[in-house]
Structures are given as C-alpha cells and as structure tokens.
Amino acid sequence: MSKEEKKPAGNASESAAESQGAEPISNKKSLRGEVKIGVAAAIAICILGLLFGTHVLCIHQWSEATCVNPATCGLCGQTKGKALGHKWKPATCTLPERCGRCGEKRGHALGHDYRAATCTEPETCERCHVTQGVALGHDVKDWSVSKEATCTEQGMKEGVCSRCGAKVSEAIPKKDHTPGDWEITVDVTITSSGYVLPGEKERKCTVCGAVVDKSEYTVDVTTSQVNALSRASSYLDMGGFSYKSLVEQLEFEGFSNADATFAADHCGADWMKQVEQKAKSYMSFMGFSRSGLISQLEFEGFTSEQAAHGADYVGL
Question: What pLDDT digit, counting tens, does each position of 127-137 carry?
Fold first, then answer.
C-alpha cells in the first residue's frame, strides 16, 4: 500500500465509530461550546441584575436642585452638584426675610416705624410710607374775620396755627335766611257754588329778598259767603261794577261788610273789563269830556288808573 492510501488512526477510529452508529466527536464539541455560552450569558444577566438592583449601576433620573438639596437621582439617591442655597429678600415692615425661590421665612417683620402726625399729615411709616389715623389739623387760637358771611355768600377768616406757624384761611358758612311774612302769590279760586281751589303763598328773606318758602293755602267758606259770591257773580254779568260799588251793592242787599268784601275779593272780576263796560255805558247816553268821564268813573269807585283806562277805551 502506498503512503497516499494510508489513513490516520484517528480517522480510522471515527470511521469505525460512524460505522457503529455513534455521534461524531465534532458535534459534541459544538454542543459543549453552546452550553458554555448560555451559562456565561445567564451569569452576565444575573450580575447585571444584581448591579442594577443594588444601584451599583443606575440609569439616573435627576431631580432639580433646591435651596437645601442638590440634584438627586430618584432611583438610587445619588447626588450631583450643590444645593442652590436660599435667596433671601430683605424683611419689610409687614413680612420677615423670605426666600425668593422656595418661600421659606426667617426672623420677624420689622414693624412700622411711624413718624408723628402733623397738622397736614397723619402718622407715616419712615420705611414704607403707610399711614394711620388722620392729620391733626391746624390749631388757630385767634381768628380775624376778613369778610363777613351773609345769607348769600360765605365769609372768610384768617389766623396763624399755634403748632406749625402756618397762615390759615377758613371759610365762614353762609348765614341762615331771615323769613318775612307770608305773601299771597296766587289767590284761591272760589266758584259761585262755593268750591275752593287752593291758592299759593310764599315767604321771602327780609335781607336778600330770596324766596325761602312756598306753600299752598285754602280758606274756609261759610254759607253766607257762598251766597254773597253767587250774588256778586250775577251783578258782574250785568257789567259796570267797580270793586267799591260791588261791595256797596252787596251790603245794600243785606250782606255783612265781611261777606261782601269776601265776595268782591274772590269773584274773579277783571276790573279793567268792568270799567270799559261802565265807560261805554256812560258814553252811550251822554257826552263826556275825558276829565269829566274819568271823574265820573272815580265817583263810581274805580281807581284813577282804571278810570283813565276807561277813558282810553272809549277814545277820549
């Protein structure tokens, strides 16, 4: 047999093993290698789990640093850097020192340092300028009146403050009005049936003349006054009565002077219209000069003004 044809003894044994149905040695080696790798991987996983579980290894989750604590891992508690430290704001009158970051306080508020009140300013804090109370106001011992007050204008007085020496001027209030007597501005209206519509009256200040009070007024009417008023109305319908002649006519009818005067006062007569009718009546049956007609009308009880108006009315 030539050298090329010789086979190694090992190969011969492998061939013998293969011929006997045994597993090849190379496959056993491969299997043992895989087992070693698996074991190594399991050991590595266990080691990593142990390292992470005991925080020897950590994927840090850092919190922000605070005034008293540095940045800290929320998983393992490891820190880095330094705490920020408090950032103190100065104390004020009403607040103690306080941290501008976390709000922590220390010490006490300073309290207000009040400056005494003056004539024009209340107590005032020297630090923060808050005030309490009111100003004292000026204290004038002796006033001199520079302008007297009236019922229409304020007056004025002057003096010097005994505390601060300032010159002080102060208004003097207006005086009250001085009411006079009541005056009738709108007379009551009384119908011939005796119904009374209220009139108006007012009072004026006796100093300045201003109206200081107004009021309605009414009157009580008696039966005899109502009767006199009714008769006066009928006479006025005839025309040509003066105030005086109407009173006289009512008295002639038997009414008292008081009732007759009441009727003449409240009958609502227009005495200018009455004198016009009387003048026209005289001129219709007799010739009159102007002065003669005026004299006749005055004799009838008309006033000089009313008589002159009557003469004017008829063209004299």
Answer: 999 999 999 99
